Amino acid sequence: MPVSDADMVRAWTHVLSLSKLQPKQTVTILTSQNTHPQTLNTARIAATNMGATVNRLDLSPVNAELAHSRDSLAYLGTTPLTGNHAAIAALKKSDLVLDLMTLLFSPEQAEILEGGTKILLAVEPPEVLVRMLPSIEDKTRVGKAAAMLQGAKEMRVTSKAGTDLRLPMGEFPVIQEYGFVDEPGRWDHWPSGFSLTFPNEAQASGRVVLDRGDILLPMKSYVTTPIEMTVERGYVTSITGDLDADLLNDYMAAFDDKEAYAISHIGWGQQTRARWSTLGLYDREETIGMDARAFAGNFLFSMGPNNEAGGSRTTACHIDIPMRNCTVLLDNREVVRDGRLLPLEQAA
After folding, report:
1. Where in the chain are the domains?
2. What is this structure's pTM?
3. pLDDT of 148-157, one tens digit each?
4. pLDDT of 123-146, one tens digit each?
5. Overall fold of domain 5-131
């Protein structure tokens, strides 16, 4: 169902209010050729109505000869900001950047945040943005989960399909994604709703079995036949199975980069308004799959870089895999049981 401009303006006003936008602050809207025009136009109206000074910075896309698809997460690291010092300076002078382009896992994003500028990413279709409008309750729920992650020394993930993965933690910070930016230097993604961290370097080990219905991103496909992965000393050392495994192996091999197989962020979805099934309703180029990443009770397993959390590992390849029907334990305390999100006050 299409979203009216009025509803989108109201949605932006809500998110900008949660992000503590004040009159006379500077908002820069970062765009490229794939920016949704309704998202852009309604963001500009909402920010202007709130008294902000609004600029638009439109940059040409890059990586066409390297990326495997048009998905903004199909090739990471090099962005239209790379080497563009004038554009970076403009963004660093802004109080708030609305990223309608995608700067994830880029050193330029980290540099902009260090100066206190807030960045909010919003690249999903308008109807997804409206359905998963963030709330204070989302922040509270994600914050409680983050507190549990912060104090844990190990995450263990098991499943009836055969997953048994041990992930020692503590070297990297915990990241909260709840959909708005209410502190200086904060980055977030609307829509979202999960907590995550990164395992200690070279310590993750075990077995991951992707079952039917688990999701591969950025392929944006549901697994149809099991895929088995072996994890040793922080890296996936083998990926076996039928056609789905062959497709994943071929995609990752094309990057010719060992770091593509390193374990990246780990966490679990906490957004009750996100749906596992939504990806099947969209053309692949219309969404980056935030329903899949955020739906309540998933275990979000990933491979690739860790520089988003201050690590030194970079790679152009990043694979996100929301897994269903897993049990997630923090120091033997269950937070997800067989894919069902447990109330944190009852987790045991």
Report:
1. 5-131, 136-341
2. 0.95
3. 999 999 999 9
4. 999 999 999 999 999 999 999 999
5. Rossmann fold (3.40.50)
